[in-house]
């Protein structure tokens, strides 16, 4: 079976986007892993499926799969690429679209300057995916990571984030601590690990070791979670500019139960056609085991 795809990125967080709206596309976790593989496949941090929604007054369903094949609730950079994709492929002409995700309905707006604003909804501080947090959430929690105690803020933007403050993102132990935090036993559904450097109260630098994908050049939901954590700690004031290795995002949050708004670019890279029968799911599934 041949399927058309578009390779896109949101400040370097890259995606394979597939139109499963015009015709049904169903992919196994093994096929997604093989497509995402940077040596045996196309290569991407996440694969995005654009589907029809069955809900009233909702334009599309947006499904997100990490490079390891797992389906997840939220992807901020992907949401911006989603808007650009449905416009470029003439699936809608609306500038404001309502999209069904695993975390609920989100609203996405294509701005006149080509940037996209995503209403990421309100943050949550005692989400199901972070069960060690009691009913009265603290600002930070202590976590034993490989014998070292670190302080993290636990924030859900629909998907779970553990954010810590570091002196310098350039020298932060992302490769060392990232996998340990991601799979820490206190996060049974695993977690995205953020490393935030405060530049001033309206500007941070951020690196994120993403659940199911490893360190990416940018993470939209991670940027929102870090800004929320910084504001809750009294270190940041909205709006906040978030600099990541792939580029910049603007995040607005007015506190309490208000929605987090994220604005940034979304870029197509190329279109292609994939022959699924040539995707080598076996090699990708076993390559780690062989090593
Ligand atoms: N890159 C994304 C987040 C993708 C999902 C994440 N890895 C998870 O497992 O929750 C973003 O831009 O938000």
UniProtKB/TrEMBL annotation:
Point out the signal peptide segment: none
Q: What is its main location?
A: cytoplasm
Write the Enzyme Commission number(s) for this entry.
5.1.1.7
Q: InterPro entries this protein is in?
A: DAP_epimerase_AS, DAP_epimerase_DapF
Catalytic residues?
A: 75, 75 (proton donor), 219 (proton acceptor)
Q: In which pathway does it act?
A: Amino-acid biosynthesis; L-lysine biosynthesis via DAP pathway; DL-2,6-diaminopimelate from LL-2,6-diaminopimelate: step 1/1
Compartment(s) of residence: Cytoplasm
Instruction: Give site residues, Could be important to modulate the pK values of the two catalytic cysteine residues.
Output: 161, 210
* Keywords associated with the record: Amino-acid biosynthesis, Cytoplasm, Isomerase, Lysine biosynthesis
The entry's family comment says: Belongs to the diaminopimelate epimerase family.
Q: How does it assemble?
A: Homodimer.
Q: Return the protein name.
A: Diaminopimelate epimerase
